[in-house]
Amino acid sequence: MPARRNQGPPPIEVKQFTLEEIDAGVRKLKRRIDEVKALASQTVRFDDARVESATRNIKADIIDVFGRHSPEYLAHGSHSVGYPEQIYGQEDHVYELAFVKGLPNTVLMLEGLIKRLEENAKISVGKKQPACEPRSMASTFTRASHPYVPTFTMTGTTGTPCSMPRWPS
């Protein structure tokens, strides 16, 4: 039987977002912020089921928005709302204090993810759309620079004529 090869960790995948994905991701992360702020306004202990639920929701939304192998998930996928610091073997009041102090940091982390999405939206909007998107095939048949590649002139969405090569089929 052949030996198994160690394949190592999967490669990091940086997601290319559409504007709809960005809007949906911002809405999801804002719901997580509201959930964390609700925990802060209530008298909830660090080991309450709602705190664990908030942690699972944050992790699931990061995976859903950015992907399991994204830099964002690698950085924040292990975040815990109830246990924001890696402390062990302490009394409950120490965990409770760390929980209360960690809630604003959780909100800041989620706001940072939203800011990253909004920056992606600005980049997506800033990308130049092609000036020659065919609206109507048309007009003239001309010869391109190569005598065997016919070119059709079309009217683009901006109203400017543009030429696209059409390869013989």
What count of domains describes the coordinates?
A: 2
Q: What integer value in Å does the Rg equal?
A: 26 Å
Count of strand segments: 4
Q: Uncertain runs with pLDDT below 50, 5 residues or more?
A: 134-149, 164-169
Reported for the largest beta sheet, the result is:
4 strands, antiparallel
In N-to-C order, the SSE pattern is HHHHEEEE
Approximate helicity band = 40-55%
Helix/sheet category: alpha+beta
What kind of assembly state do the chains in view correspond to?
single chain
Q: What is the overall pLDDT average?
A: 80
General form: flat
- Work out the helix count: 4
Beta fraction: 5-15%
Cα(first) to Cα(last) distance is 51 Å
Structure overview:
With 169 residues, the protein is an alpha+beta fold. The protein has helices at 19-41, 49-66, 71-76, 92-126, and strands spanning 134-136, 141-143, 150-156, 161-165. Helices cover 49% and strands 11% of the residues. Strands 1, 2, 3 and 4 form a four-stranded antiparallel beta sheet that branches. Strand 2 and strand 3 form a beta hairpin. Helix 1 runs antiparallel to helix 2 and helix 1 (19-41) packs antiparallel against helix 4. The radius of gyration is 26 Å and the shape is flat. It starts with 18 loop residues before the first helix and ends with a strand. The model is unreliable at 134-149 and 164-169 (pLDDT under 50).
